[in-house]
Amino acid sequence: MRKTTNRFAAAILAVATLAASAVMATAPAGAAEAATAFPTAEITVHGAQQGDTFAAWRLLNSTDDGTNYSYTLRTQRDSSTSGIAITAQDTAVTEALTSATGKSTAQNIYDLLNGMTSDSIDLEKQMKTIYQAIKAKTITQDETATANKDDTQHTGAYQATFTDMPQGYYLIAQTNGSKAAGSTVSLLIANTANSSKDAAGNSGVDVNVKADTVQLLSATDQHQAAAQYQDDVAVGTDFTWSATGTLPANYALYDSYKYVFTVKLPTGVAADSEKSDCPVVNASAVNDGTETPIAPGAFTIAKLTEGTCTYSFDNLKTAQASDAASSLTIAAGTGIRLSMKAHLTSDATVGSAGNIISSSVKYSSNPLDSAMTGTTAESTATLYTYKLTVNNTDNSGKALANGAKYSLYSCGYNGCNTQVGAETEASGDYASAVFSGLDSGAYELRETGVPAGYSGADPVKFTVTSDFNNGTVTLTSDNDRVTTTDASMVINMTNTTSGGLLPSTGGAGVVIMYVCGALLVGASLAGIIVAVRRRNRD
């Protein structure tokens, strides 16, 4: 067999890209008859989640003549290993490997695999085929390892270590679902046939889990999506909500692919007249910004609890376009979008707490095991709605509620002509009128009912702008008379007296007014009498 000194290509299958740093424990070859075991090395899997488990199968032996090494099938022995017995495990793995690759020699298998790049889908498919052949023969793994030690290379991650592994070329499969939200399990290739050291300077090899992820983003009204999306909307106004999950890079490796949206609506959000019903939605595949509707029959809708529904694609691989004439492309990188039309109701939360629609996706996470699924982190769309409080006072700053009424209008290109809600009368201890369920935008407040004896206040035009930042909302106004707090607005309106302060009906001031009036009338009459008498004397 041809000697090799170059490093074996590394690969990750099933949403994992193997970064393999090939190493081996070197051992000078002794006399063939003295050989009793292969040299050994450690294999350390980095970047795992705590509790992740892995199983390893040695596919090829790596033998050493004291200067160079070469590969052999597990059922072969050369001068350096002729004293090592061939086991039933050796025979089973060799049969599975040659069957899966269609190659009968270690050199041909090496050439096949080494000719593929470490991140190619072809290599991943070949590794899957080998793994399936091993599982079909129910071949017990050579060793297992669990990630239970803080990772020396990745902060916040854990590592799993295989010890005393006979040198060779290994297939390592993750055997449990990854605990990281949105991650898939990994299939790794590790080659210990090299004279270098691992990162810690030990005889061994380091491999890194690089998990492809399924990310979920939410948005409203086709705005730019985000994991934590925020927007504002007026009560009763329809908005379009969507959640989009992107399929992983190894989607092609799956024979079938499950994709299940779970959507939770808050009390103040409704998509139809019956809040208890699951909203009717549309699903589409998104490629390079182009949406292709998916036929409704591709998914089923089910109500779990009040306000919580699931939308299940049992197998995206069989989904069809809604329009038979359209071509539906679902592949790695395709976004699967769930959309619905909804609106805020009068039960919506007003202010900075917002109304949160949350969604997550359960998805197939292992192309080697169709029953294994993962779940994304929740994506949220928070819808805010605001209130405007109008405080009415007299010109001395005292609350004035006897007859003050206000109407609010939204402003557009043609002026402020659209009334928002109903005319509202100031009332209560603070003589306040409240308009609730507003969004950001331009408004005009008009006093449409003026207290008797007072002049009406001038209309107030203002524009409110919302600023969203990581789960918080801040309102600002372009009019100093409008103050904002806790995602709400306040305007102080003042009514002044018409020509002076008039006394209230039935008060003591009325008596004084009557007395003063009588005195004025009496004085006038006296003046007239005096003037008449003088004229008569003359």
UniProtKB/TrEMBL annotation:
Protein name: SpaA isopeptide-forming pilin-related protein
Top-level taxonomic group: Bacteria
UniProt xrefs under Gene3D superfamilies: 2.60.40.740, Immunoglobulins (2.60.40.10)
Domain SpaA-like prealbumin fold intervals: 387-476
Pfam families: SpaA
Family matches, as InterPro entries: Ig-like_fold, SpaA_PFL_dom_1
Stretches of the chain forming a coiled coil according to its record: none
Signal peptide range in chain numbering: 1-31
Keywords: Membrane, Signal, Transmembrane, Transmembrane helix
UniProt key word Transmembrane helix: yes
Transmembrane segments: 511-532
Native source organism of the sequence: Bifidobacterium thermacidophilum
